[in-house]
Amino acid sequence: MQQDKIDCSVIQLMTDDQLKEYLPAYGDRLAIHGYCRRKEQDPRGRKSKLFDRLRTRLARSRGESDNVSGKKRSKNAQKSMRNIEMGWMHFREGNFMQVRTKKGGGTRKIYVSKDCTKKDLLEKAAELFFPGEKSSVGSFTDFVVDVTDFQEQTIDDQITVGELYELTKLPVLRFYLTTKKKAIASDTQLDTHLDFNDETIAQGGGNRQDSRSPTRTSQSPLLTENVESEVIYVGSSTLIETGSDDVLLSDSIISMTDASSVFEIDAARQPEVDNLEDSGTVTISTGLISGLDDTALDDTLPILEEAYSLPSPIDNSLEPFVQSERVKKILVIHRGQAFRQLIEHFCDESVLTDDISMKVILPDGRLENAVDEGGVLRDVLSEFWHDFYEQCTLGNSFKVPYLRHDFGQQQWESIGRIVAFGWQREKYLPVKIAPVILEQAAHGCVTTSLVDCFLRYVTESDRMILESCRSHFEDVDKEELFEVMDHHNSRRVPTADNIEQLLEEMAHQKLIQEPAFVIEQWHYVLAPLRIELQDIAAAYDELQPTSRKVMKSIAYPATMNLQQKNTGRYLSTFLRESDKQHLSLFLRFCTGSDLFLGKNITVSFTQLEGFQRRPIAHTCGCYLELPVNYDNYPEFRHEMNKVLESNIWVMDIV
Length: 654
Fold this sequence. Notes:
Elements: H1 2-13, H2 16-20, H3 26-41, H4 45-61, H5 65-78, E1 81-92, E2 95-98, E3 108-113, H6 118-129, E4 134-135, E5 138-139, E6 143-148, H7 161-168, E7 173-181, H8 187-193, E8 201-202, E9 209-210, E10 215-217, E11 222-223, E12 227-228, E13 231-234, E14 238-242, E15 245-249, E16 262-264, E17 272-276, E18 288-289, H9 294-298, E19 300-302, H10 319-323, E20 328-334, H11 338-345, E21 355-361, H12 375-392, E22 393-395, E23 399-401, H13 409-426, H14 435-443, H15 450-457, H16 460-471, H17 478-487, H18 499-513, H19 516-526, H20 536-543, H21 547-553, E24 554-555, H22 562-577, H23 580-591, E25 601-606, E26 616-618, E27 623-627, H24 633-646, E28 650-653
Parallel strand pairs: 1-7, 10-28, 13-20, 20-21, 24-25, 25-27
Antiparallel strand pairs: 1-2, 1-3, 4-5, 6-7, 8-11, 9-26, 12-18, 14-15, 14-17, 16-19, 22-23, 26-27
């Protein structure tokens, strides 16, 4: 062995010309240099490794495997300290929600004694998450606290960490500190500090879409007299022109008790937004509002320059209670910019706990005259997901998110919150995203067939070739097949025996592995909804629009004359002939959503003629007004298609 080392060192010192005298072939010289390098890095050589492996196998065959494999276990058994993970879950909105790192929570890894009990773990958790007995949600003494295991079950007071390791056989144990706000002692004490009145709103009206520009309109909510309403406008720094005064919505929150800050905007004029920048957040709360009619409510905006602060007499211990109040927020969205602006709004984790509605700014800077009672929200969600499919996904019938350099953890978490928000509010899901992605994010496992989803992800031509392979492999053009397999980075030659395995592997790579980062970020948001999202595939089927579903949702008047019956037949024929794209457009025109959400569409008839003749839709109430003055079905179909394909619907009538 020593002689080998000397020879190798001499060879490495020789130049190529000197070595050429002994080894004329260039490949032999490369091989001998490589051999010498390997000798220096591993002096024992390959034979020694083979002998070690052989000894291990012989030991196992003689029944000594328990001694070999038990070495690590015996080491852990001898340790008096073990690693554990500690998280924090706070009770909010009826459930325990995990507190994220930026809020002072996160998962902490600590080294504790195996004799630690629940009391010791509680003390360590308090030191981690409540340094100085304070945290982002209040003082440690303000909460009812407990320690739970990885299954979120409270642990016994006497059991130790070492005993739990023996019971669970897990490599690392995870515990959670759970906190729940103690009940406030006296409501009267709160009343001495706060003068909040409950918001009493009687909702009415609906958004209306007029096909000529095609328009959407809505009546405003009615406020009872002497009711204090809390409304927060969330948008960008906005300048609204009002006849005589310019109101600047800056990054501030208005005091809820100052009614002098309310400016009346001239109801006869359209409020114009000249400069709505992208940065900043507008949060405005109205003061005392009384005796406002529908129009005045829409066109009234308060303004103060002082930032919101709690009145000084309020004790700090009441602050979490004030923050937990459900707040009505109005998100201000530019028409055509819903994709970018919704992501910005939903970067805030608290947005899912607020009462959210939408206001839309037209491209010319005017505010759409519509109050969101569901229709505007559904329309904004439809616009957002349409843009998301175009800008952030790859695929054909089923889409898969792809990683963008300008999208990080915050942006993908925000999109996950939009998925959760749409489902909780309107049972809306982005059905073009492959269902296995949402299943993996919500449940941590896949129940839908990966291969079936993959075949809807690839192009139509690739799908036909791959489906032919599964049924009649010998009849497939091998050159085309090899081209498809190479396009999807397959490194094995497909045969009739392995084609199913190759498809499974390619499907897993495209649908699970490549979007793994996106799935991980969505998991934090969708995992709490796993019970509601129990059967995602079935939800997808229910949301897909079909002629039969839409026709069943149409409700006609109980009594109709001959003209109305003819128009009703025209509508039924139109829906029966429509493809999936036109059905989605029809649903969005009538309900605001391009998916079938189970909304009933009520049809009424008008006598509009000439240039005024057009369908009119009310998206909030899901009403459709149809003229009766059509001479034949082709005339009706032509006018309806022009309306649906124009794609320039604007809500412009109150």
